[in-house]
Design the sequence.
């Protein structure tokens, strides 16, 4: 994770196919790429950032929950007053698909302006077959910049109408939603919120095994608030990632490292919720696990959009080196969406997803915070000029 190559006075040669043809010193590439259009830039070019964990399709922000939490209310008390995840579920169900599409696209344009070129987006505020499929259709209509990777998260919560019969909801997930998701081919991954009080390890295993049988890759919200063996489950089933992990056990850390399941850490969530602890990033890395950082962009626990900010937090709160922080939002972010061979690196054959930042020293990426220093973004070789796009945020 600490292997970073820095090219001074470098250049990137982008082929007509949108892939990187070569990278190296400018003087050498100038000779090799004779006839190519030259774009002069000033700053540091990074691989486009990969945000491997978001819940970006939602309606209104949960401003009341934010204020309630500040008054000392916990998750259960907030839910009892009509807030929490189910308020986002009621909201999404009431919105037209086209309106959700437009709202999500506008929000993702902010992520793009912050340098994110690939973003994983989960469903999970629909929780009916119709509304989960609608959400995945919204995700499918996004892009091309940033590129969206769709994940089915019907097992985000048991919706209120099934509160007294969880078994019936599990049957809807396995017998109705997953077959429809497979039929329509609109998700790459299936995720489950595995947490005491949400879905148990055994329930999570059942949903994930059904998803695996239908050809979906696996992800898991694991050991966020309480350790329950989520990381062990993710590793056991060969999931591509286990996410959150603030309460991961020693056994879970070893299992992730052994199995090559990427640990996706979300420092913004703990910060926003006012939690005093973060995931044990150092122990994960020292055990040999691959660590990625993501925003967890969602209206309840992390309305944050900036991966450079997550990088800064990982250095100041979790003990990552600046090298590890950069790898965690590029190479390992790509690995967490099973795209390690196509993006996340500036190397020949990789997609030309590039983020230009107005800094002198690459370490400044995870140093300055609260300002957006990204000045240009290319996705698949095309300049996106994110600063010149409309980025109205109105709900
Ligand atoms: Zn999440």
Sequence:
């Amino acid at each position: 994770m600490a292997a970073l190559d820095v090219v001074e006075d470098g250049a990137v040669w982008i082929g007509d196919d949108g892939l990187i043809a070569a990278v190296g010193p400018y003087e050498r590439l100038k000779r090799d790429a004779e006839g190519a259009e030259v774009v002069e830039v000033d700053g540091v070019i990074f691989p486009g950032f990969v945000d491997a964990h978001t819940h970006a399709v939602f309606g209104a922000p949960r401003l009341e929950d934010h204020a309630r939490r500040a008054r000392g209310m916990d998750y259960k008390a907030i839910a009892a007053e009509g807030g929490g995840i189910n308020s986002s579920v009621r909201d999404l169900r009431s919105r037209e698909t086209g309106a959700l599409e437009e709202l999500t696209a506008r929000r993702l344009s902010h992520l793009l302006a912050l340098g994110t070129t690939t973003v994983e987006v989960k469903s999970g505020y629909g929780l009916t077959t119709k509304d989960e499929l609608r959400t995945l259709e919204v995700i499918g209509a996004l892009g091309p910049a940033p590129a969206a990777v769709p994940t089915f998260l019907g097992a985000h919560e048991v919706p209120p109408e099934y509160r007294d019969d969880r078994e019936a909801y599990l049957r809807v997930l396995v017998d109705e939603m997953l077959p429809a998701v497979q039929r329509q081919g609109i998700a790459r991954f299936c995720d489950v919120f595995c947490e005491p009080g949400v879905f148990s390890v055994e329930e999570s295993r059942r949903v994930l095994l059904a998803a695996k049988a239908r050809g979906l890759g696996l992800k898991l919200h694991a050991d966020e608030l309480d350790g329950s063996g989520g990381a062990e489950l993710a590793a056991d089933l060969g999931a591509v990632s286990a996410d959150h992990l603030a309460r991961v056990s020693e056994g879970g850390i070893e299992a992730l490292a052994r199995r090559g399941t990427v640990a996706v850490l979300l420092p913004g969530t703990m910060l926003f919720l006012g939690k005093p602890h973060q995931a044990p990033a150092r122990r994960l890395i020292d055990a040999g696990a691959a660590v990625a950082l993501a925003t967890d962009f969602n209206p309840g626990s992390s309305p944050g959009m900036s991966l450079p900010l997550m990088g800064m937090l990982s250095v100041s709160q979790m003990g990552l080196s600046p090298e590890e922080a950069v790898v965690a939002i590029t190479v390992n972010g790509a690995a967490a969406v099973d795209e390690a061979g196509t993006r996340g690196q500036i190397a020949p054959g990789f997609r030309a997803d590039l983020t230009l930042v107005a800094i002198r020293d690459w370490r400044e990426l995870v140093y300055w915070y609260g300002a957006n220093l990204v000045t240009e973004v290319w996705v698949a070789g095309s300049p996106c000029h994110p600063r010149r796009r409309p980025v109205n945020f109105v709900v």
Residues 53, 55, 221, 296 surround zinc ion (CB under 6 Å).
